[in-house]
Amino acid sequence: MLIDATDEALLAAIADGLPLVSRPYRAIGETIALDEAEVIRRLGSMVETGVIKRFGVIVRHHELGFRTNAMVVWDIDDTAVASTGPAVAATPCVTLCYQRPRRLPDWPYNLFAMIHGRDRASVLEKVAEINSTHDLDGRPNDVLFSLRRFKQRGARYGQSLPALARGAA
Amino acid sequence: MDNLDRAIINEFQGGFPISPRPYAEAAARLGISEGDFIDRVRSLLEAGVLSRFGPMFHAEKLGGGLTLAAMAVPEADFEAVTETVNAFPEVAHNYAREHELSMWFVLATKTPERVAEVIAEIEAATGLHVYDMPKLEEFFVGLRFDA
């Protein structure tokens, strides 16, 4: 654990977002009896250690007009993932990119990328582009378009950790 | 959405200032006033373009467990299984996808050990196998998503 109880209280206080007032860190501090400078110091340090992955706008791709998302998966040699992974991740339109374990025989894929697009055709175009750019044309791959989103929940830090991980897996 | 809205989204997907007057500082970068910046963010939140304005956390560094899970759900049972799975508070989001493995959800738990427990509970409740696919490696994607 990289954080202490005060950090936890601070995270809970800002989990739903920063107040839209001129001095938001002071406002946050007032709710948990911390002064503004201490709030700033603690948040800065949590950004530095990566407890806060990023700090700013969190967009809804769908509402931005990127109505289609696909989880695109490849079966890559384990020795090649370390070089292919970062290259795929750097492609604009890839919003998440992970190496995950295969689950043989049902699931042979070990590289996962989330791709958002305005429609299916544009997602497939991106996949083709990634395949040709990174020499993946011969590799087994699959594109799993999303059909429906059932749950994208905003639980709170105080209730459970899951909320904090929204979109993080 | 106009160009200023897009500029805010493109500029501040990360790196929002952590300083006494962050909105004023952010606004200055875009050449607008603090009040205008705040109004814009409020409108984008109200319109649902932004889900939040603030921090995105790293679950494992907070001491929790996180994984991506999948199940092959027969079509006829899909609604019922969805209801069962979503009733678990650890299920953070859940998508139906076009594949034999038709249901994909993120599990986020208070402790790493709890992941396996929840998976066993979901298997017991649904009678279906849950494929556990935790991340082995995360590859950095640019912070920027162009609006």
Number of domains of chain B: 2
- The portion of residues forming beta strands of chain A comes to 15-25%
The main pleated sheet of chain A reads as: 4 strands, antiparallel
Number of separate helices of chain A: 5
Number of helices of chain B: 5
Q: What's the order of the H and E elements of chain A?
A: HHHEEHEEHE
How are the SSEs placed, and which strands pair?
The complex is a heterodimer of chains A (169) and B (147).
Chain A: H1 5-14, H2 24-31, H3 36-49, E1 52-59, E2 68-74, H4 81-89, E3 94-99, E4 111-117, H5 120-133, E5 141-152
Antiparallel strand pairs in A: 2-4, 2-5, 3-4
Chain B: H1 3-11, H2 22-30, H3 34-47, E1 50-57, E2 65-71, H4 78-86, E3 91-97, E4 103-109, H5 114-126, E5 131-133, E6 137-138
Antiparallel strand pairs in B: 2-4, 2-5, 3-4
Quick structural gist:
The complex is a heterodimer of chains A (169) and B (147). With 169 residues, chain A is of the alpha+beta class.
Please describe what this structure looks like.
The complex is a heterodimer of chains A (169) and B (147). Chain A is of the alpha+beta class and 169 residues long. Chain A has a 4-stranded antiparallel beta sheet. Chain A folds into 2 domains: 5-58, Arc Repressor Mutant, subunit A (Orthogonal Bundle), CATH 1.10.10; 64-145, 2-Layer Sandwich (Alpha-Beta Plaits). Mean pLDDT of chain A is 87; it is low at 154-169. Chain A is built from 5 helices and 5 strands; from the N terminus they run H-H-H-E-E-H-E-E-H-E. Chain B is built from 5 helices and 6 strands. Chain B is α+β, with helices and mostly antiparallel strands. Chain B has 2 domains: 3-47; 60-133, Alpha-Beta Plaits (2-Layer Sandwich). Classes of the chains: A alpha+beta (169), B alpha+beta (147).
